[in-house]
From TrEMBL:
Gene Ontology BP annotations: cytochrome b6f complex assembly
A Pfam short name: CCB2_CCB4
Top-rank taxon: Bacteria
Keyword terms: Membrane, Transmembrane, Transmembrane helix
Lineage per the UniProt record: Bacteria, Bacillati, Cyanobacteriota, Cyanophyceae, Oscillatoriophycideae
Stored InterPro entries: CCB2/CCB4, CCB4
Protein name, entry field: Cofactor assembly of complex C subunit B
Membrane-spanning parts: 12-32, 44-60
UniProt keyword Transmembrane present: yes
KW Lipid metabolism (keyword) present: no
């Protein structure tokens, strides 16, 4: 269910007052028999003020647009880590996922690397396995993140069945050339450019950690420390 915008009344208030003022001036004008010069000047001033209020309200809506409608993602809260990971990798993943969940609009985090799911955290999707589809494969091949601003508009969303089914926005960020960081948001068009740069930095940090502690083998073996 979408959350109401608490600032909507404030955005509409100048427009409503301007329209009300204009209507009252019109009623007063036609209910007055003999119009004196001072009343005429007052009416003109009132019309100008009403127009300015309406214009201010419209400009305010343009400068401060409505926030994207957020929804409650469907699924249980959870925190799952691959138990075979070395402790430094577990710590790094716990730190990174906590930052993403508390400092961005991210509500679901999945980290997949070398053919296995290393972490799921936040609102968990119905499927615990990740089978890379066309979008994830493209991210790995191009080594460039993909941001799906409104996931429900993309036919390719079916490959992300490991995220909550009503996920609104998604970022798929490469972790080196063998893994991806997949983030699900509860509102469309909600990640900013700054968020994207920050997510890229976290992925680079994870890449360095994985290269240090995880074997670069096709059999997805993992070293323990």
């Amino acid at each position: 269910m979408a959350k109401p915008d608490r600032n909507e009344v404030l955005r509409q208030l100048p427009i409503a007052i301007g329209i009300l003022g204009g209507v009252l001036l019109l009623v007063n004008r036609y209910s007055t028999g003999d119009l004196t010069p001072s009343q005429a000047r007052s009416d003109v001033l009132g019309v100008i003020l009403s127009a300015l209020l309406i214009l201010s309200g419209l400009l305010w809506q343009k400068i401060q647009p409505r926030s994207p409608d957020a929804v409650e993602l469907l699924g249980p809260q959870g925190f799952e880590l691959d138990p075979d990971l070395p402790n430094p990798v577990k710590t790094e993943l716990a730190w990174a996922s906590h930052l993403l969940l508390t400092n961005t609009v991210t509500r679901s985090v999945v980290v997949w690397d070398r053919g296995r799911v290393l972490l799921r955290r936040g609102i968990l999707g119905p499927n615990s396995e990740v089978k890379p589809g066309a979008i994830v494969t493209r991210v790995l091949e191009k080594q460039k993140a993909v941001y799906l601003v409104a996931l429900n508009l993309y036919p390719g969303r079916v490959e992300f069945d490991y995220l909550p089914e009503n996920t609104q926005g998604l970022i798929c960020q490469p972790i080196g050339d063998r893994g991806v960081l997949i983030l699900g948001a509860n509102a469309p068009r909600s990640y900013t450019r700054q968020d994207e740069r920050w997510i890229e930095g976290i992925a680079d940090k994870l890449t360095a950690t994985f290269e240090e502690y995880l074997l670069d083998l096709d059999d997805v073996s993992i070293t323990k420390t």
